[in-house]
Design brief:
The structure holds 2 protein chains of 2 kinds. Chain A is built from 9 helices and 7 strands, in the order ββαβββββαααααααα. Chain A has helices at residues 38-49, 110-118, 140-144, 157-161, 163-167, 174-184, 192-199, 213-217, 224-241, and strands spanning 7-14, 24-31, 68-71, 74-77, 91-94, 101-103, 106-107. The N and C termini of chain A lie far apart (65 Å). Chain B is built from 4 helices and no strands. The mean pLDDT of chain B is 92. The chains are: A alpha+beta, B mainly alpha. At the A-B interface, helix 5 and helix 9 of A face helix 1 and helix 3 of B.
Chain lengths: 251, 116
């Protein structure tokens, strides 16, 4: 039986640039059931308590990557975090760290999108191919080279987790670097040379200080830290061998 | 985008990390616990004569130098990055200390170990 008498206090960071001088926490008391996610708690607030609250959400099932936020200080998807884990304590919800706040829990994502576009996150064929040549074939072993890293849903939790990105946003960041690896490691792709000029730089793989919190918070088990470490190895080999055996762009 | 020169130190760091993970705990156990306390191993396993002979062979010199030098560079880069994460950002001072010190120690290690 659902127990609708239970309530939990949710502290939500509010910031409406046209009326608030600075962000502040507002507390709402929300009745909830055991299967309610934090997202459902926020939806209750918006529908029944305070319609002015803004937050991003879409799929409710950890696939769209929209509802990333700081929940009790940790970057999490609101849809796969449950209120019952915090009850009877209150919980605190804020926008993703390391991004400017646009409004309430909504952050400005332009920097992330620009970086994502800059690494050409799509397959660049090795050579032009005619329709009658048929599909690209790939062995299970070739698929395993990149499959894990293709699970990224661009939720940016890893960016909120990355102290390096927080200190210097010129760093390309975990998610986008993992995606760069995903395409470079695809046997159908020939775009490694175009992507690795960034990869070899301080803004690329070398900006990472190997904290690995990105991999801990990833809701899709992408393990960006592993992708970056593999590429540090590749980039280091290329650094020393580039004159005898070039493996892609490098200046 | 300029290519980073990080691979120079990182390759030493990486080699040191692999070595530390592989032999670090065993070394601590053998040299710090087992031999001094005589557990599982006898005291004279690391007697002066044996260790002296070990350090005189080329294989011994390479192993001793690898353990000293690579461990050092691994720790140096780790500390360098950690300082950055804690808000002490790369500058002349932190580079001088984090890379200068292990460099001096590397030179010293070669200076003393090679002539044994």
């Amino acid at each position: 039986m659902a127990d609708t008498t239970k309530t939990i206090e949710i502290e939500v960071l509010r910031y409406r640039p046209e009326q608030d001088k600075e962000p502040f926490f507002q507390t709402y008391t929300v009745p909830f059931e055991d299967d309610w996610s934090v997202l459902q708690g926020l939806q209750y607030i918006k529908d029944d308590l305070d319609g002015t609250l803004s937050f991003r959400w879409s799929c409710r099932m950890a696939i769209c990557g929209s509802c990333g936020m700081m929940i009790d200080g940790k970057p999490r998807l609101a849809c796969r975090t449950f209120l019952r884990h915090y009850h009877p304590n209150k919980l605190r919800v804020g926008p993703l760290e390391h991004f400017p706040i646009e409004r309430d829990l909504v952050v400005v994502v332009e920097d992330f999108i620009r970086k994502l576009e800059s690494i050409k996150p799509y397959i660049i064929p090795k050579e032009p191919r005619k329709l009658e040549q048929g599909e690209y074939l790939q062995t299970p072993a070739q698929l395993e080279q990149f499959r894990q890293f293709s699970g990224c849903i661009n939720c940016m939790l890893c960016y909120a987790a990355c102290p390096q990105y927080g200190l210097d946003s010129k760093f390309t960041g975990p998610g986008v670097l993992a995606l760069m690896h995903r395409y470079n490691a695809d046997s159908r792709d020939g775009g490694r040379g175009e992507r690795m000029a960034l990869g070899h730089s301080e803004e690329g793989f070398w900006g990472c200080t190997a904290v690995t919190y990105c991999s801990e918070v990833c809701p899709k088990d992408v393990d960006p830290a592993n992708a970056i470490n593999q590429n540090k190895m590749g980039s280091a080999i290329d650094y020393f061998l580039r004159f005898v055996a070039p493996r892609g762009a490098g200046k | 985008m300029t290519r980073s020169n990080a691979p120079l130190v990182w390759s030493l760091f990486g080699a040191g990390g692999v070595l530390a993970a592989l032999v670090g705990p065993a070394l601590v156990f053998v040299t710090g616990i087992a031999v001094p306390a005589g557990i599982l191993m006898s005291h004279d396993l690391m007697s002066y004569q044996r260790m002296f002979g070990f350090a005189q062979s080329w294989a011994g010199k390479i192993i001793i130098l690898a353990v000293i030098v690579l461990f050092l560079w691994h720790a140096a880069l780790r500390i360098f990055h950690m300082l950055h994460d804690f808000g002490i950002h790369p500058g002349v001072a932190s580079k001088l200390i984090c890379f200068g010190l292990p460099f001096l120690c590397t030179v010293a290690a070669f200076y003393w170990v090679l002539p044994i």
